[in-house]
Amino acid sequence: MSAKPAVVLLSGGLDSATVLAMAAAQGFETFALSFRYGQRHAFELQAAAQMAKRLGARRHVVVDFDLRTFGGSALTTDLPVPKGRSLEQIGQEIPVTYVPARNTIFLSFALAWAETLQCTDIFIGVNALDYSGYPDCRPQYLKAFEGMANLATRAGVEGGESLTIHAPLIRMTKAQIIREGLRLGVDFALTSSCYDPGPAGRPCERCDACLLRAKGFAEAGVADPLLQRCA
Amino acid sequence: MSAKPAVVLLSGGLDSATVLAMAAAQGFETFALSFRYGQRHAFELQAAAQMAKRLGARRHVVVDFDLRTFGGSALTTDLPVPKGRSLEQIGQEIPVTYVPARNTIFLSFALAWAETLQCTDIFIGVNALDYSGYPDCRPQYLKAFEGMANLATRAGVEGGESLTIHAPLIRMTKAQIIREGLRLGVDFALTSSCYDPGPAGRPCERCDACLLRAKGFAEAGVADPLLQRCA
Is the pTM higher than 0.80? Predict the structure, then answer.
């Protein structure tokens, strides 16, 4: 019997790389899905491609569309990415880096691919502890998406196994995620978390994503291999 | 005070044109949203552009992505579009023209645009009577999407007016839709319903969409101006 398929959302960051490794470790045959959506940090897609290959994804698909058409976020417009915020500030309110409905769009494409693969498992690396305060990273949102998805597809009419949205990181700290990734052999030097990277993906080390990443490595008691690579 | 904004999904077909006219008649300032998703009947986008202009949409945006990557539907692959089915057959089971998760993807983009416009009204022309039997045209699906959407966005965290998914055609017959469109001045000669149109958008008159359209015009007791135009 062949392995059960799973669609895994893969941004190229630390969280989704760990999730891809976790899905593979659970025995799923993984189908990695990334998006070129007009993000200023499109460097992450190079990281995603390398990670999909390293972690043995059966396929890696990048879907293209342009959310700059709608605007509304520092990640898709010229609005400045906040830098040097305190860890107390991060997650207290929804920041300007929030991209309206991004996870809903990502999960919708994952749902489309899952249905054509006859796959009932979707993995997403959202986290509601060490996170940027985005509404579409909360457990109640994911539960609602799952309920909707189970009405949206053939299986919702014809019956069959229901779809599960797996968010294995949802209650983990960044340090726990890093330890789990390291345990599963994820090479974090290949990941890219920065919202505003420089040439060759060099992290700015001052945006919310860089600060949360630094906090995680510090709490895990290990050096970030990405900073060593870029040093 | 300026008119309230609404995002209206506009395919270029008869149903969504009527919905655009209905939203405008209700006093909304309309923002029409269409998709080039690899559909074989991309001719409908010309119809959508004309319709948006005629019906006074404030803006008309076409988002591009390619669902052919995933396959799984006769509308996005070389699978033949069923022709000459009886009206009894249509809607009895989910046909091969079903595009996995299409309405979920469409509504997700509508949600993204609505959030950047600070708009709480989305219109979609789905219909659960004279329809092709797609799971994502059912009232319970739309209700679930609305619930999810209200958790997905800033308003779901910060409070504010909740989002409403309007599906004013959901319980109407095709004949009722046609009469309502005519009452509101929609020029159906400019719409395109066919799943497999010929040159210049000429309808095949044998696919499910053409057959449901013909039944609607027959029941409404009026001639289809599109057939007159193409004659």
Answer: yes
